[in-house]
């Protein structure tokens, strides 16, 4: 087994929420990191510092304060670019979240490049944020959405991908790590198949960026959508990465503010990348906060995070599989499968909301519902599931307490129904 540092001892002290006792004896057990990450003090302080001493609009003012804010904002862009190994910070467009980044591509690239007979390939495991924008594009253009199916273990069916990719395929858009199945998709392999017919690849990296090293060059993708709030950064900020040569050709998504070069009464011309895609005042403090979150993650080391979380995920699976009546979705962790640090499960005859409410009464936060993956739940013929998701701050003790409380919650519901 790979050696790993105990990252929780090293990092929990940085998170005010984990240092605060809920009552005399108990801390909160937060196992909902896939929904949103908690924020370390370094990020909170970066936000406070910006709003206290640097707050000004960017790229607009001639005064020194605006120059300082602009410098910090553009440094945030460079940090984000380096984080994913982008060749230039011009390829980073700040958005409100990952959903907006995907919508930007669907509108700007989709409206200009996709025609009636074209096809967009999506997967059955996508989050609604990577389904609905393409359904809207299909309504606007008449193009067809096709879904790549899954294997019995909840991995992407690569044979099905090969069957469905053809000359009409314009884009393969998929997530890196599934927020429900935990499946980690083999992106390099998928990219080769897509590129062989000239299709582009958009990667939804919401569930991977805080858990493993993501390198846009080695993955050889064309677009990537990322979210600040999933990587220990503030809400209200995300980013789109796109190949410069592709972004250059795309028309603006939203209009107004500093995204222009020149405006006259009847027409306008556009600013250079990436500003062409940033209409209106951006989330300046939040982008700076996201960059601080990135440097925080880098100081722990993405490889350390991956191996620590792999060990914890194995332990979570051990504990859950020992509970009678539980079905876990997605591939089990093992030597060959690189999967996300989460477990999504259900117990026949018990609603997942009942489980999560009972756990909540013991200060344990897990997610229940469809996790914005209704098509996936429909495919499995279930309405809702419960999900425990981990981070580098999680501990075996938390997993022990969670599984003990889960067992007694299931017993309690069974006895009372
Ligand atoms: C896989 C995946 N894609 C997209 C999203 C949407 O991200 P955002 O909240 O940044 O729009 C999420 C959030 O839950 C997600 O887990």
Description of the structure:
The chain has 417 residues and is α/β, with parallel strands linked by helices. It has two domains: 7-38 and 302-415, Aspartate Aminotransferase, domain 1, CATH 3.90.1150.10; 44-298, Type I PLP-dependent aspartate aminotransferase-like (Major domain) (Aspartate Aminotransferase, domain 2), CATH 3.40.640.10. It is built from 15 helices and 15 strands. It has helices at 7-11, 16-19, 41-54, 64-83, 98-113, 132-141, 158-164, 187-196, 216-219, 244-249, 284-300, 302-321, 352-360, 374-380, 396-415, and strands spanning 29-30, 92-95, 119-123, 144-148, 169-175, 200-204, 223-227, 238-242, 260-263, 268-270, 326-328, 342-347, 364-365, 367-369, 385-389. The strands form four sheets. Strands 2-8-7-6-5-3-4 form a seven-stranded mixed sheet, sandwiched between helices. A four-stranded antiparallel sheet has the order 11-12-15-14, with helices on one face. A two-stranded parallel sheet has the order 1-13. Helix 5 packs parallel to helix 6 (132-141). The longest helix has 20 residues, at 64-83. It is globular. The two termini are 43 Å apart. The mean pLDDT is 96. It binds pyridoxal-5'-phosphate (PLP). Pyridoxal-5'-phosphate (PLP) binds at residues 97-99, 127, 129-130, 175, 179, 204, 206-207, 227, 238, 372.
């Amino acid at each position: 087994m790979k050696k790993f540092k105990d990252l929780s001892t090293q990092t929990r002290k940085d998170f005010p929420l984990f240092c605060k006792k809920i009552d005399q004896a108990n801390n909160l057990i937060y196992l909902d990191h896939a929904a949103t990450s908690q924020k370390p003090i370094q990020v909170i302080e970066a936000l406070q510092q910006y709003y206290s001493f640097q707050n000004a609009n960017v790229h607009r003012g001639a005064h020194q304060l605006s120059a300082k804010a602009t410098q910090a904002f553009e440094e945030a862009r460079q940090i984000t670019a380096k984080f994913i190994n982008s060749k230039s910070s011009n390829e980073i467009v700040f958005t409100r979240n990952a959903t907006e980044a995907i919508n930007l591509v669907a509108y700007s690239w989709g409206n200009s490049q996709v025609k009636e007979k074209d096809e967009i390939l999506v997967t059955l495991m996508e989050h609604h944020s990577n389904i609905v924008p393409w359904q809207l594009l299909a309504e606007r253009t008449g193009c067809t959405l096709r879904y790549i199916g899954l294997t019995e273990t909840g991995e992407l069916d690569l044979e099905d991908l090969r069957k469905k990719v053809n000359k009409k395929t314009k884009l393969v858009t998929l997530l890196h790590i599934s927020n429900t199945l935990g499946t980690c998709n083999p992106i390099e392999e998928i990219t080769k198949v897509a590129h062989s017919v000239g299709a582009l690849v958009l990667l939804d990296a919401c569930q991977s960026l805080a858990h493993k090293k993501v390198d846009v060059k080695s993955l050889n993708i064309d677009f990537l959508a990322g979210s600040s709030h999933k990587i220990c950064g503030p809400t209200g900020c995300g980013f789109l990465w796109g190949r410069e040569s592709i972004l250059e050709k795309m028309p603006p998504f939203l209009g107004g503010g500093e995204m222009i070069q020149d405006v006259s009464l009847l027409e306008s011309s556009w600013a250079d990348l990436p500003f062409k895609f940033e209409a209106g005042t951006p989330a300046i403090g939040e982008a700076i906060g996201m960059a601080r979150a990135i440097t925080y993650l880098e100081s722990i080391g993405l490889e350390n995070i991956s191996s620590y979380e792999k060990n914890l995920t194995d332990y979570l699976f051990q504990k859950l599989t020992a509970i009678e009546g539980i079905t876990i979705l997605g591939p089990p962790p093992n030597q060959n499968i690189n999967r996300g640090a989460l477990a999504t499960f259900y117990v026949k005859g018990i609603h997942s909301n009942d489980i999560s409410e009972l756990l909540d009464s013991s200060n344990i936060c897990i997610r229940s519902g469809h996790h914005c993956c209704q098509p996936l739940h429909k495919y499995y013929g279930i309405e809702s599931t419960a999900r425990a998701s981990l981070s580098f701050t999680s501990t075996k003790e938390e997993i022990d307490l969670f599984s003990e409380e889960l067992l007694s919650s299931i017993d309690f519901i069974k006895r009372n129904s």
